[in-house]
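Running co-folding for magnesium ion.
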Amino acid sequence: MEKILSIKDLRVVFEDGFTALGGVSIDIGKNEFVTLLGPSGCGKTTLLRCIGGFEKPTSGEILYKGENIIPLPPYKRAINTVFQRYALFPHLNVAQNVAFGPDLRGEDKKKTAAEVERMLKLVGLEGFGKRKIASLSGGQQQRVAIARALINKPDVLLLDEPLAALDLKLRREMQLELKRIQRESGITFIFVTHDQEEALTMSDRIAVMRAGQIQQLGTPEDIYNEPQNAFVADFIGESNILTATMLRDRLVRFLGCDFPCVDSGFGENAEVDIVLRPEDVKLKPIADPVANVPEGVVETLLFKGVHYEMKVRVGESVLLVHSTHARAVGTHVKITIMPEDIQVMHKSETSPDVLRKHAERAL
Amino acid sequence: MKRNKALAVPFMLWAAIFIVVPLVMIVWYGVTVEEPIPYTEIVQEDGTTVFQLEDGSVTAVRPQKKTVVSLSNFRRMFEPTYLRLLLRSFKVAIITTLICLLLGYPVALILTGTDFKRPALWLMLLILPMWMNFLLRTYSWMSILENNGILNNWIASLREMLPAFDEWLTSRGVRRRIIFLYNENAVILGMVYNYLSFMIMPIYTVIEKIDKSLLEAAADLGASPVKSFTRVTLPYSIPGVLEGITMVFVPAVTTFVISQLMGGGKVPLIGDIIQNQFGKSSDWHFGATLSLLVMVVVLAFMGALNKIDKDDEPVKEVRIL
Ligand SMILES: Nc1ncnc2c1ncn2[C@@H]1O[C@H](COP(=O)(O)OP(=O)(O)OP(=O)(O)O)[C@@H](O)[C@H]1O
Ligand SMILES: [Mg+2]
């Protein structure tokens, strides 16, 4: 894969001494769709602002096609941004906003007008050209911002939560549309979202960030199935995170039982965290002959549309279980987990917080 | 929505006393003149004098002038003397406004620039002289520009120090003592100095309020700093510019103090004549008529500006007056 952007040990320390980025490194390939995912304030916007040229990093490098672009002002970068707060020009109408980039480059007016119409159609705002920005809803403004950036066909497009203001249905449509544009146009997308489902469905790779650092960088499958620490596991999808003991390679002990697993290399009797996805926790009738497995009692049962959500108490712990098969509250069950469904992780600095949060479910 | 009308009463009262009544009075004075009452003096046998009016009636008190409605002052107003003065007032005010704009806009722009540290302090330094008494400020300029003033003294000592410079000036026919004061330029200088901050403030305020993210968006879309200025900052600052123009133009077109001090009476403006009518000439009626004229012209001017503003309307909340 051809690299287009290469970010090396990027640090941003603000004047007040706050470290917004504490050494971020990431290589981004041409036409890749990379999503930055993380809690509010973790530095996603700051990272985009560095790439766009609006923030001078304290140290580190941003190589664009091999050349360090940190000294370049934003208007000399072949990068466009869909800003988190849109930043549309209120003194111009919708069409003039979208045409801002082409007009600056002195492109043919007729060609631009046609292109603007095409872009507006793309974002579902056909015929809105003459409208004032102030007369648009938040979601419409957001789509104008997308059109205004897309029309420039940049090499790299930075999108800072570009769909946050849209309703679910429109958001799904725009997700498909953006994904299609990215695939067909060859533009590299760097996308910020709070919505993990959006991240999982759209991205080639996801960078999970926390407190100015990338916690894990990988494909959606990697991130979901093999989170590297409790923070990532907790942030992506629903999960049960438990503290466990790795007895030896491929054998882990939790909930008072020993489970075969597929992980190795943690040493013997090592303290680890494990993550179990709710859909991977299987409930069996108490009469089932399977032995040496934890037993529990169903405490709550909720119908969630596609599946049932149950909370099952096992001693001190409570497990979140998703199943298409409902079990009445108070039913005694046996719990089985396939070896490959147990993800073993090293303890990290965030484990105590995450474990505490998960333990609180049991109260 | 139901509003409590009682709350508006104090303001209405205030407006009535201080705005409506004086205006009505000015209009009344403007459309009237004093006319002497014709009479004949008759000395009676007992030595007393009586006065016979035209209708034949006789009175013992000398008849006073009477106030009659007449548009003669309006006719007089359009005499070339007064029109010339009005024209000059406009010329001086327009030049002053333009110079203030040309000086004030860049200052406001620089002060709002991102690399400019502590703009508030600089703004304060710019405004500070305005807290001094207006006359004091103008007198200071006079003492700088006088024939025997600071500037002429500097030039004189420079000429002594640099003979070549002296020769060069002499060859171009420059007098030993340059006359800076008592001409139109001096009046304009005095006005620019006194009114410049009225131009800077409103422009500074609107530019300051421009969302920085809009400038970032422009840069993101490929606008160089110059393009960002012409495409974003400039259109946004128009309301401030219009407000600045009004704030400078209106006092400039009506002033009389500056023209009297800096112009030394040689550059009378319409304001001087009006002031004269209420002072030396003591013809309040004509003074009022001229005031009405200026008022109408200024109102027309502001109406025109307001229209530009409406057509443009990038920033809604800034309105002229
Ligand atoms: N100019 C600044 N000076 C000081 N701190 C700043 C500045 N800009 C941002 N920060 C801080 O840096 C941190 C990261 O901000 P950033 O905007 O990158 O977060 P984010 O991940 O985009 O969050 P969100 O998801 O809420 O948009 C925040 O704690 C923020 O308060
Ligand atoms: Mg952000």
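Result summary
Residues A 44-45, 84, 160 surround magnesium ion (ligand 2) (CB under 6 Å).
The interface with chain A takes residues 211, 213-214, 216-224, 227, 231-232, 235-236, 314-315 of chain B (CB under 8 Å).
Job closed.
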